[in-house]
C-alpha cells in the first residue's frame, strides 16, 4: 500500500536520506532500523509530509503523495506518532482522543450550536470510540486526567490510541518503545501485533529495541548514514554482515 | 507560600477597590448640558473600603478558610488534580453567579442616571469586542493587532446601509456581522500563513489600511467627516425619538401612553447591548466545547501533533479569525447606533490595543476575566478624565504590572473539560 522509491532529503550540505526505497504491503509490519542519526525519522517526516523530499517518489495506494501537505496525507489514512511524545498536555486523556476524531465529527458550526441529532449522534459515537480505545490500551481509568500528568509509558500508549481513533490504514510509529521498561515493552509488542491482526492496520515501525523488532517485523529495512544498507526478513537481517558491521562499528 | 498569599491578597483587595469605588461610589449627573462627576458619600467609601479589607483577609487566609469549607471548590487554579465532581460543581456555581449578574444587569438601568447607562452600553460593546478577540488571541493563539478593522466594518456597514438604502438597525445587525466575518475570511486567508510577530505586524497593517480607506474614500464614506444621522434601533417598529422619523412608524412613548423621556432610548440600547453580550458569551462558550473549539486549542498547544492528525492549520485558524470578526461586526453595528455618528477617528489602532489589553488583563481565554477587565478598562478612563493625558501611561504601567505579577491575567482560563461519564 505504501511504496517509497529512491527517496532523498537534503538539508543544506547534508544528505540526510539518500536514495532510500521501501514498501509496506497490506497486513504487514515493516521496521526501519539503523544507528542514531541514520535518517530514520527524516524518512518518516518525508512520508508523512512534514518535509518536502528533495527527490524520489512516494506512493500511497497507488497515488503519488510526495510534497502534499501533512494534514492531507494523514487524512488518506496514514497516521504517525513522534519520537518525542506529542500529546495535548493540558487536555484530558479523552479529549485528546476527541481532537483526533474531528473528521468523524459534525464540524458544522450551526449544527453544533443547535445540537442537531446528527451532531449529537456523532459526538456520542466518537466518545464511544474513545472509550473503546482507552480500554484497549488500558487507560480507561485515567480518561479524565490531564494527559500531561500521565506516566511516560501511559503517554506513549495514549499517543497510539490517538492514532487509532482516526481509523488509519497505515500506522507509523517512531521509536514507540523508547523509555519503556521491559514489561511495558512486552505489552507494546502485543499491542502492535494485535493492531495488525485484529484491526487490519499495517505498521511502519522505527525502533532500536532489537528483540521487539526481530520479534514482530515481517520485513526490515536497515539505513546507515542516510543510505539503504539492507532489507529483508528478520532472519536475513540478523545474519547480514554489513548490518552487523554497521552496528558493531557504531557500538 | 505565605508571602505569595499576601501578595495575591493585596492584589485582589486593590482590584476590589479599583472596580468597586467607581461603580458604587461615583455618579455622573446631568446638570443642564454639563455632566458632572459627584464623588461618593462617606458611607459608601467606608463600605467599599471594608469590602476591600474583607477581600484581603479572605484571600490571605484563603487556604485555612478553604480547609474548613472543604465542600467549596478551591480558588487556586492550575493546582494538582482536581476532583472532577468539584469541577462540575464549580461550573454550576459559576453559571449561577453569572445568571445572577445578568438578571441584576437587566434591572439596573432603571435605577441609575442616564450617563451611567450610556457608559454601561459602551462597556458592553467592549465586552462583545473583547470576547470576540479572545477567540482569536486567547483560544486560537493568533496575535491580531488589527481587530478594530472588523469593528469598523460592522459600524460602517450599518452607517452606509442606512444612509443609502434606509436599512434599519435590526437588518443591519446580521448584515454587519456577516460582512465583518467575510472580511475576516478574506483578509485572514493570506495572513494566517504567517506566524507570531509577523502575523501581528501584518494584521496591524490591515487594520490601518481599512481605516485609511475609510478616511480617503470621501465620496462613499464622507472621509474624516464621517457619517451622521444613523438611526436608533426600533422596538417592533416603535421609535424612541420624540417625533417619528420614518413614515408609518409609531413612537414608543405614544404607544404606551407615557411621557417622552430620553432615557427610554438609552436604556433600550443598553438592553440590546446586554442581550448581544450574553449571546456572544454563550455562543463562544458553546464553541469551546465543540469540535472547532477543541481544534483551536489543539493547534495552539501542539501544532505539529494537530497537523499529524489531519487538522488543517489554515482552516482552523481561519475559523477563529472569522468568528472573532463576526462578533466585532456585531459590536460595530451597536456602536454606530449608539453614537448616531461615526468617523474613522473611532477606529484607530489605539482601540485595537485597548481591546487586546482587555483580553490580556482578563486572562487569555477566560470569559469572566475578560468581562471584568472590560468593565475596568472602559470605566476607569471615563472617570479619570482629568488625567486623560496620562491615560496611556497608566495603561502601560498597568500592563507591565500585570505581566510581572499576574501574567495569566485577572482570572486565568479554566478549561471546560469534557468528561467520559462513569470513570473514576
Ligand atoms: N530539520 C533538519 N535540518 C537539518 N538537519 C536535520 C534535520 N532533521 C534531521 N537532520 C539531520 O539529519 C540526520 C538524520 O536525522 P534523523 O533524525 O532522521 O535520524 P534518526 O535515524 O531518526 O536518529 P535517531 O535514532 O537518533 O532518532 C541527522 O544528522 C540530523 O542532524
Ligand atoms: Mg529518530
From TrEMBL, chain A:
Q: Which ranges carry the ABC transporter domain?
A: 2-250
Q: Which SUPFAM superfamilies match?
A: P-loop containing nucleoside triphosphate hydrolases
Name of protein: Branched-chain amino acid transport system ATP-binding protein
**Keyword ATP-binding included in the entry's annotation:** yes
Q: Which GO terms are recorded in the biological process aspect for this UniProt protein?
A: D-alanine transmembrane transport; L-alanine transport; L-isoleucine import across plasma membrane; L-valine import across plasma membrane
Entry's Pfam families? Answer: ABC_tran, BCA_ABC_TP_C
One GO MF term on file is: L-valine transmembrane transporter activity
PROSITE patterns documented for this protein: ABC_TRANSPORTER_1 (PS00211), ABC_TRANSPORTER_2 (PS50893)
UniProtKB/TrEMBL annotation, chain B:
The chain positions of domain High-affinity branched-chain amino acid transport system permease LivHM N-terminal read: 4-108
Transmembrane ranges, per UniProt, are 35-61, 93-111, 123-143, 148-165, 171-191, 198-214, 266-284, 315-335, 347-380, 392-408
Database matches in InterPro entries: ABC_transp_permease (IPR001851), LivHM_N (IPR021807), LivM-like (IPR043428)
Q: Which CDD domains match?
A: TM_PBP1_LivM_like
The keyword Isomerase appears for this protein:
no
GO cellular component labels: plasma membrane
Keywords (A to Z) from UniProt: Cell membrane, Membrane, Transmembrane, Transmembrane helix
Signal peptide boundaries:
none
UniProt key word Transmembrane helix: yes
Write out the GO MF terms: branched-chain amino acid transmembrane transporter activity
Query: Coiled coil located at which positions?
Result: none
Q: What is its main location?
A: membrane
Q: How does it sit in the membrane?
A: Multi-pass membrane protein
One short Pfam name that applies is BPD_transp_2
Q: Where in the cell is it found?
A: Cell inner membrane
| PANTHER family, alphabetized | HIGH-AFFINITY BRANCHED-CHAIN AMINO ACID TRANSPORT SYSTEM PERMEASE, HIGH-AFFINITY BRANCHED-CHAIN AMINO ACID TRANSPORT SYSTEM PERMEASE PROTEIN LIVM
Q: What is this protein called?
A: Branched-chain amino acid transport system permease protein
Amino acid at each position: 500500500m505504501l511504496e517509497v522509491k529512491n527517496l532523498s532529503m537534503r538539508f543544506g550540505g547534508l544528505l540526510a536520506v539518500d536514495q532510500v526505497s521501501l514498501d509496506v504491503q497490506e497486513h504487514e509490519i515493516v521496521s526501519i532500523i539503523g544507528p542514531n542519526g541514520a535518517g530514520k525519522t527524516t524518512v518518516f517526516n518525508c512520508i508523512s509530509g512534514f518535509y518536502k523530499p528533495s527527490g524520489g517518489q512516494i506512493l500511497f495506494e497507488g497515488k503519488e503523495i510526495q510534497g502534499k501537505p501533512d494534514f492531507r496525507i494523514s487524512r488518506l489514512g496514514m497516521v504517525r506518532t513522534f519520537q518525542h511524545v506529542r500529546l495535548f498536555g493540558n487536555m484530558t486523556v479523552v479529549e485528546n482522543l476527541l481532537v483526533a476524531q474531528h473528521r468523524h465529527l459534525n464540524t458544522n458550526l450551526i449544527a453544533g450550536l443547535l445540537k442537531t441529532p446528527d451532531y449529537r449522534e456523532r459526538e456520542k459515537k466518537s466518545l464511544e470510540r474513545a472509550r473503546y480505545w482507552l480500554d484497549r490500551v488500558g487507560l480507561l481509568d485515567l480518561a479524565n486526567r490531564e494527559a500531561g500528568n500521565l506516566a511516560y509509558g501511559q503517554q506513549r500508549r495514549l499517543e497510539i490510541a490517538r492514532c487509532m481513533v482516526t481509523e488509519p490504514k497505515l500506522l507509523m510509529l517512531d521509536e514507540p518503545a523508547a523509555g519503556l521498561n521491559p514489561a511495558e515493552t512486552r505489552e507494546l509488542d502485543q499491542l502492535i501485533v494485535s493492531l495488525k491482526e485484529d484491526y487490519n492496520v499495517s505498521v511502519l515501525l522505527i525502533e532500536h529495541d532489537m528483540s521487539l523488532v526481530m520479534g514482530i517485523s515481517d520485513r526490515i529495512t536497515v539505513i546507515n548514514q542516510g543510505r539503504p544498507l539492507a532489507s529483508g526478513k528478520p532472519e536475513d537481517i540478523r545474519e547480514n554482515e554489513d548490518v552487523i558491521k554497521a552496528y558493531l562499528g557504531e557500538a | 507560600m505565605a508571602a505569595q498569599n499576601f501578595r495575591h491578597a493585596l492584589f485582589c483587595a486593590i482590584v476590589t477597590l479599583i472596580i468597586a469605588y467607581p461603580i458604587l461610589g461615583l455618579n455622573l449627573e446631568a446638570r443642564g448640558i454639563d455632566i458632572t462627576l459627584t464623588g461618593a458619600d462617606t458611607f459608601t467609601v467606608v463600605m467599599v473600603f471594608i469590602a476591600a479589607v474583607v477581600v484581603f483577609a479572605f484571600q490571605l487566609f484563603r487556604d485555612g478558610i478553604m480547609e474548613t469549607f472543604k465542600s467549596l471548590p478551591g480558588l487556586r487554579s492550575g493546582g494538582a488534580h482536581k476532583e472532577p465532581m468539584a469541577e462540575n460543581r464549580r461550573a454550576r456555581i459559576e453559571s449561577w453567579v453569572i445568571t445572577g449578574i445578568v438578571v441584576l444587569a437587566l434591572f439596573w438601568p432603571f435605577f441609575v442616571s442616564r450617563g451611567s447607562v450610556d457608559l454601561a452600553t459602551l462597556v458592553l460593546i467592549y465586552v462583545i469586542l473583547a470576547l470576540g478577540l479572545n477567540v482569536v488571541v486567547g483560544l486560537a493563539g493568533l496575535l491580531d493587532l488589527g481587530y478594530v478593522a472588523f469593528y469598523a466594518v460592522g459600524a460602517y456597514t450599518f452607517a452606509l446601509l442606512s444612509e443609502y438604502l434606509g436599512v434599519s438597525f435590526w437588518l443591519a445587525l446580521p448584515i454587519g456581522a456577516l460582512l465583518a466575518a467575510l472580511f475576516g475570511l478574506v483578509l485572514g486567508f493570506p495572513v494566517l500563513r504567517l506566524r507570531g510577530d509577523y502575523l501581528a505586524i501584518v494584521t496591524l497593517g490591515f487594520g490601518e489600511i481599512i481605516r485609511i480607506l475609510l478616511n480617503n474614500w470621501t465620496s462613499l464614506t464622507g472621509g474624516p467627516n464621517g457619517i451622521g444621522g444613523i438611526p436608533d434601533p426600533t422596538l417592533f417598529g416603535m421609535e424612541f425619538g420624540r417625533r417619528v422619523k420614518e413614515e408609518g412608524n409609531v413612537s414608543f412613548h405614544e404607544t404606551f401612553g407615557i411621557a417622552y423621556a430620553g432615557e427610554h432610548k438609552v436604556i433600550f440600547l443598553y438592553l440590546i447591548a446586554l442581550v448581544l453580550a450574553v449571546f456572544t458569551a454563550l455562543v463562544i462558550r458553546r464553541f469551546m466545547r465543540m469540535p472547532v473549539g477543541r481544534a483551536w486549542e489543539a493547534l495552539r498547544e501542539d501544532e505539529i501533533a494537530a497537523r499529524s492528525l489531519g487538522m488543517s492549520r489554515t482552516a482552523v485558524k481561519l475559523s477563529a479569525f472569522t468568528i472573532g470578526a463576526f462578533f466585532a461586526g456585531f459590536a460595530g453595528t451597536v456602536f454606530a447606533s449608539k453614537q448616531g455618528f461615526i468617523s474613522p477617528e473611532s477606529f484607530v489602532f489605539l482601540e485595537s490595543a485597548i481591546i487586546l489589553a482587555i483580553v490580556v488583563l482578563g486572562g487569555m481565554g477566560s470569559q469572566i476575566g475578560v468581562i471584568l477587565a472590560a468593565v475596568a478598562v472602559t470605566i476607569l478612563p471615563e472617570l479619570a478624565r482629568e488625567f486623560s493625558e496620562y491615560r496611556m501611561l497608566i495603561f502601560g504601567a498597568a500592563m507591565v504590572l500585570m505581566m510581572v505579577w499576574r501574567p495569566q491575567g485577572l482570572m486565568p482560563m479554566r478549561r471546560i473539560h469534557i468528561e467520559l461519564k462513569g470513570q473514576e
